[in-house]
Design a protein that fits this description.
Elements: E1 7-11, H1 32-49, H2 56-68, H3 78-93, E2 100-104, H4 117-123, E3 128-134, E4 138-143, H5 153-162, E5 168-172, H6 181-188
Parallel strand pairs: 1-2, 4-5
Antiparallel strand pairs: 3-4
Helix pairs in contact: 1-2, 2-3
Length: about 190
């Protein structure tokens, strides 16, 4: 099975002394060094995590070429950079699951800029958003992500046990960003 490559570029914002920065200036300053570090990090993640190894060289070449040709130069903000990176990724891979997203992490500070993966997974209930039994004995599961099997698989198992005696089951993946194929297989089993 394949790992669905979803790459998130996270950034933090801090507000000092109660002063609010002007709109559209939140996030890191976009410098050539920041762009280069972002492209390098993105390449590394794709190399380690992307499921289709035959496409990886084409994606890496496209990212390097775009950076060298100045495609990311004069980027206004982090959102603009993400959009330009996504254009490159889409043209190189034709995979809508592979994208750069931006998330402002709640409570982030310059000292503790990012939540650990384990804490983020826990806060998202390991992708299980809703589990209930609807009228007519119909089970309903809303699953927003497929975390790795070693990350809260008991939450999926508990949710499945909860709806195990229903006559029908609705699996709601409308807001699912993908994730581990092993967990998707666990769900299907």
């Amino acid at each position: 099975m394949s790992f669905v490559g979803v790459i998130v570029l996270a950034f933090t914002c801090s507000v000092s002394s109660g002063q609010q920065p002007p709109e559209k200036t939140l996030g890191p300053t976009i410098t050539d060094a920041f762009v280069h570090d972002t492209v390098t990090s993105l390449q590394s993640l794709i190399q380690k995590k992307y499921f289709d190894t035959s496409v990886i060289p084409r994606i890496e070449e496209a990212l390097v070429a775009a950076e060298q040709q100045g495609a990311y130069a004069n980027t206004k903000d982090i959102g603009d950079l993400a959009e330009k990176l996504n254009d490159t990724l889409d043209q190189a891979s034709h995979d809508k699951h592979l994208y750069v997203g931006i998330s402002e992490l709640p409570g982030a500070t310059p000292i503790q800029p990012m939540l650990s993966r384990a804490e983020r997974a826990r806060m998202e209930n390991f992708g299980i958003k809703r589990a209930e039994v609807l009228d007519g004995n119909v089970g309903y599961l809303q699953i927003t992500a497929f975390y790795r099997a070693n990350e809260g698989s008991e939450v999926l198992e508990t949710a499945m046990n909860f709806v195990s005696h229903t006559d029908a089951l609705i699996l709601d993946f409308r807001n699912n960003g993908g994730g581990s194929s092993d967990t998707a297989v666990q769900l299907l089993s």
